[in-house]
Amino acid sequence: MDHRLTAFRELLARDVVAASRDVLGLTLVVGEHRAQIVEAEAYGPTDPGCHAFRGESPRLKAMFGPPGLAYVYFTYGNHWMLNISALPEGTPAAILIRAARPLTDTKELYDRRPKAKTDRDLLSGPGKLCAALGINASHYGLDYFDSNSPVRLESGPVVTEVAVGRRIGLSPGKGDEFPWRFWDRGASAFVSRPWRDN
DNA sequence: AGTGTGATTATCT
DNA sequence: GATAATCACACTT
Known about the structure:
- This protein is of the alpha+beta class.
- It is 19% helix and 25% strand.
- The chain has helices at 3-14, 16-22, 61-64, 107-112, 126-133; strands at 27-30, 33-43, 70-75, 79-85, 94-102, 151-154, 162-165, 181-184.
- Strands 1, 2, 3, 4, 5, 6, 7 and 8 form an eight-stranded antiparallel sheet that branches.
- A hairpin with an 8-residue loop joins strand 4 (79-85) and strand 5.
- The structure holds a DNA duplex.
């Protein structure tokens, strides 16, 4: 593991917000596909927007586990979401991977998302990303730092132009005002909501 | 570019 | 029985 990825791993163990910023630029590898992460959000303990706010449950096992596991869940009757568990075992936190830029052949991604017209439509949202990459319950709990894992992280450039905003989709009063969403300004065309800081 | 709404189901109260 | 870390489409400006 190179320095960039090692540094991210250490940050992931102690600061989920800082890690959500640092994850930008890293390479998400799913099977044969590779994509550069361009948008992410932090969810942590004492956060009303976090699924674990009301304590542990079977679904949340990965979030309560050690840092670097895939927390995958299904929502709105339609969409899978892909997260990276953070903070030490017993402390619930996660990074929601919201958008990425394809780095490898996109044929299969288009097959899985027939409505996509351009490469920017493939991974520009957490539900779209999971659909295009084929993420589902079978990926639950996988280790992002295991080089044999079907879902893993590899190194990538450090992103210096990082924009910050409020998290998307939270109800009023559930932490919707926390500035815990980060995206790569230089890749804004591949982000779920590129237009501005808020 | 922005607003509103329906789809559809696992999970928890 | 209510809710949800979304998406796509229709409609307005």
